Amino acid sequence: MQPACDLTSVSSALSLSSTGSTFRVLLGVTGSVAALKLPLLVSQLLKIPGIDVRVVTTDHATHFYDIGEVPVRVYTDKDEWEMYKTRSDPVLHIELRRWADLLVIAPLDANTLGKIASGICDNLLTCIVRAWDMSRPLLFCPAMNTAMWQHPITAQQVATLQGFGYVEIPCISKKLVCGDEGKGAMAEVSTIVDAIQQYLPKPAEKITAQGDEH
Ligand SMILES: Cc1cc2nc3c(=O)[nH]c(=O)nc-3n(C[C@H](O)[C@H](O)[C@H](O)COP(=O)(O)O)c2cc1C
Description:
- By secondary structure, the chain is an alpha/beta fold.
- Helix content is 38%, strand content 18%.
- The protein has a single domain, classed as Rossmann fold, CATH 3.40.50.1950.
- Strand 7 and strand 8 form a beta hairpin.
- The structure holds flavin mononucleotide.
């Protein structure tokens, strides 16, 4: 398990790539079995030139992948609370929402979908979402068992997120890990990477953004 970050390491990690030429992707991961694709998704994203990636994980999501196999910084709820000791300390969820140009939640499980739809913010990821700069893109990739997907509340909650301006990367049909077959599987990694690439600044925009500070 990766050690919790101290204040110095958080500050330096966040300021490492503060030039306007880097597009910063914050990848949220929740407790769906599809979280096992996290190392693959991160490695595919890192192939895109000019991109920086950080991960924010829920505690349940960590059951599905080995944090040591993720080649970028992974922030946990523990980090949020360990870095805040006194009044002047930075608040991690605010630092990360400032840092990120784009937030993608892949996979978004039924639990966190429900929390986001109703404004609940009881962990690092949902606090970032609650504090999100609505002018920046937020993409979400639902992933759940077919029976969960078919429950009428799912469509309502997905519509609520779309109403906020968040972009759904739809789930797909396939044989799920639990043995059920049907809709509810997370979109393919390649589909998610392609969707994120749509938001990368075009070369001309990059030049304009060189002096920007985030
Ligand atoms: C083996 C296993 C697989 C799971 N897969 C999913 C899933 O694909 N989608 C989902 O919505 N919930 C799934 N769950 C349930 C979530 O992990 C559970 O709702 C959890 O509280 C989510 O917490 P989080 O949203 O904070 O990550 C699974 C649970 C287990 C034990």
